[in-house]
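1st attempt posting a full record on here, be nice pls
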Amino acid sequence: MNFVAQHLLSLILFTPLAGMALIALVPGDQKQGIRWVAFLSSLVPLALSVVLWLGYNPAVGGFQFEEHAVWYAAINSAYHLGVDGISVPMILLTGILTPLAILISFSVEDRPKMHMMLFLMLETGMMGVFLSLDLILFFLFWEIGLVPMYFLINVWGGKDRRYASFKFFVYTMAGSVGMLLAIQIIGLTSGTFDMVKLFDLWPAFNREFIPWVSTGTLKAIAFWAFTIAFAIKVPVWPLHTWLPDAHTEAPTAGSMLLAGVLLKLGAYGFLRLVLPLYPQESYRFSGMLALFALLAILFGAYAAYGQTDFKRLVAYSSVNHMGFVVLGIAVAAWARQTGLSKSDAIIATNGAVLQMFAHGLSSAAMFLLVGVIYDRTHTRQFTDFGGLWPYAPVYGGILIFCAMASVGLPGLSGFVAEFMVVRGSWPVYTLVTALSMLGLLFTGAYLLKAIQKVLHGPVNQKLVDEAQHHGVRLEIGVREVVAVAPLMALMLFVGIWPAWITNVINAAVTRLMG
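the predicted structure (as tokens):
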């Protein structure tokens, strides 16, 4: 037990890889065995994430459960792990969503061994980003997460999967190249890649390193390299165009993790690296960041409303919802440097982190539900649906519940998060916040549109007859209910009693704001 306590973060990080090794030992023709080994293996990081949550003490300053070992001495890079109140909720979210995504993937018949191994590899990459306290280590896990998602889209995606996976890979890699350059600049100039040390060293660094290039210019280059890489991942408008294609073509479980966790890596990068390392640059361009957040909220909502493809509608909704996360980060960037409206900025940043968690739940649930109806009907077009409520009442009830959480209905998780962002942003960016309410209006419009097109109106008898002819039951299955039920329970739990998670987030955000 003492070993587990001392190396809890390493166990969370590498137990998915141990699960991959176990899957490799299962004969390829034992598909059901492969699925259960993958699912049970994914429950181990979840259990360890819960242990981490219960053992984390918000009252203690700094990072907790730290692990430090010499890794790459030649460049002064170390195996350094640690967590705070911003990373712990994201680790818990990743631990929850991965087993549910694997459970939904039980229906995959084509190469299930490779399919399941890629999900566990993806989990290690995502966990590594949230756990790393060394820039080189951070970048390593950032890139590891890119590879399995590319193959999940490329091999098991829809008809345009090759285009979508290529676009996803190129966009993300383009951002990664700049980020790697910025990491090299920081490491070579300051002599360390350790984040905890750099939070003190790099903002105050003022020594000419490259002839004819001022320190300010060097920092500005590094700042924009980080910002663009994280903005692509969020994604911030106008760098969002890879997202609808990737979501639309990805398999259901891939979309669940792409929306539920991978998008959060960009927002986490802003909070973990950009704000602490570049306080002056963040302040200088905070207004621009707030403007891009507004455009993401508005254009994401308007684009979602205009979709005729159910999955593409949910994909654009992620651009809309993540815009509120970016707005909260912009407020933090402004207030952290000026010292003004700091209490408002703390509320907005708390809301941004909570929105990351809440959107992870609701978006994963919505993509799961799109996948359920697609599996039965082999279509996602609203024109092909209509009047399905009598044939799938349980599915309809779950869809309405999850859509209301995404809308931000009071009592559910989305309301608490977005209210905090709006409340904290209003005194700082009043006009931007007021205009963003138009995005909220259209959020309700496009989700009500989806509910109406799928569940209500005239019945598409041809679709129903065809399903019955092939012996297909339109109602949601037991396995799928088991997969979505924990997400629904957490949406309700966060909405009714958010203090269980906001107390953890608030302590870390308050320290971040100084």
